[in-house]
Amino acid sequence: MAAVRQPRQGRGAGRENPRRRRDPRLPHPASGRRSAPAGRPAARGARSRGTRSHSTYSPRPLRPRAGLSCNPTSGGSGGYGAAFADAGRGRWGDRMQEDVEDAVAQVLATGRADPSKVAICGASYGGYAALMGAVRRPDLYRCAVSIAGVSDLAAMLAFEREDGEDSPAYQYWVRTIGHPERDAEKLRLASPRRCAEAIKAPVLLIHGLEDQVVPMEQSRLMAQALRAAGKPVEHLEMKDVGHRGWTPETLRQIVERSAGFIAAQF
Description:
Elements: E1 2-5, H1 63-66, E2 68-70, H2 82-86, H3 95-109, E3 118-123, H4 125-136, E4 143-147, H5 153-161, H6 168-177, H7 184-189, E5 203-208, H8 217-228, E6 233-238, H9 248-265
Parallel strand pairs: 1-2, 1-3, 3-4, 4-5, 5-6
């Protein structure tokens, strides 16, 4: 079995800042001067290489039930030079997904994993990558788990734009994923919510109700789109849970629900 997970964007798992609107840290490759928020249980940074600060989001708890784990680093990650870090800019949904797909193909080529039992699981940016993976490769993944993931890029831009077009957070999102008007079609095609009909795999959505980085509406929109398309979806909302700074009990619940969901599909 192979449970394939996309690495976490970000550097640390600090407490969520209630003044998020003044903090340009985002769940995607960081600028180098600021760190992106902590993301997923299966986590390494897409702007920083794996460090001890990522131990809270290690894929290890999933391994006993999910099997072999592949934790790829996509373009846009730091620690490999500026060119590699910049490779993901404006390439959500295509080049960054290709890196994950290449990693899966390489694992399968070794013969160590059953190609009929591959799942994709991630949080924050990785939650987006899990959903987009299910869109792009509907016959590859048996299921997808998105934890606090983005599903609609235009809606995410609108959320950040609420503080004004000159806000650091909004400008950062525009540089990273695209402009809402000039790149409208590209953003639509790179939004899992807008491509729900292409998904075949069952999807599990997990989101904290106190998430101030990726609003819970992102998972709600995805759940609505999947149900409207007649696709199998489970949607869990967690009270008193933010985007990061999870307690051990919260992490345990997320891991157990994710691992149980993956095991059921296998």
